[in-house]
UniProtKB/TrEMBL annotation:
Gene Ontology terms for molecular function: zinc ion binding
Source organism (scientific name): Thelephora terrestris
Cross-referenced SMART domains: RING
Keyword check for Coiled coil: yes
Domain RING-type as annotated: residue spans: 4-48
Record's protein name: RING-type domain-containing protein
Length: 161
């Protein structure tokens, strides 16, 4: 039983990276989509080795090298592996424990996400009120400046004496 280190679940449609690490097809694709979309170079979640997701046109590669050019994401089939040890009771217990911990962490993430959204809504509301107050204070300052200038002109003769 092979596990995906991203979702901590049994591998579903396993995909291998050039570095040899294996992940679920959906997990590695969501990781790629989560990364900056305009980059073609990504990093393995386990070892941080870079890999490219750009497809190479086989016509651009000389004929004698085409067999050496492989895609970065390759589907693999694990059914034929004979020397994979059978999962032990300890492993199953640890997997169950990790899945439970993963579920708790996901719940915490959702909770913090809701808090962050609420916090940003409050901050945006406070920023809006502050902006409105700033605009009101600017208007008040302009009115006071105009009033000051008119009084200054009106009583300019008193300053001369």
């Amino acid at each position: 039983m092979a596990l995906c280190v991203i979702c901590l679940d049994t591998l579903k449609s396993p995909m291998a990276l050039p570095c040899g690490h294996v992940y679920c097809h959906e997990c590695i694709l969501s990781k790629i989509e989560f990364d900056v979309t305009h980059l073609s170079t990504h990093r393995c979640p386990s070892c941080r080795n870079p890999y490219s997701i750009t497809n190479i046109d086989p016509n651009a590669v000389p004929g004698h090298l085409r067999s050496s050019v492989l895609p970065s994401l390759r589907r693999i089939y694990l059914d034929g592996i004979q020397d994979v040890p059978a999962p032990s009771v300890e492993t199953d217990a640890e997997v169950s424990k990790l899945r439970a911990e993963n579920a708790i962490l996901r719940a915490y993430c959702e909770s913090w996400k809701r808090r962050a959204n609420l916090h940003s809504a409050v901050i945006c509301g406070v920023a809006k009120v502050a902006r409105e107050q700033i605009l009101g204070m600017r208007e008040d300052r302009e009115q006071l400046e105009q009033k000051y200038q008119s009084l200054k002109r009106k009583y300019a003769h008193l300053e001369l004496e």
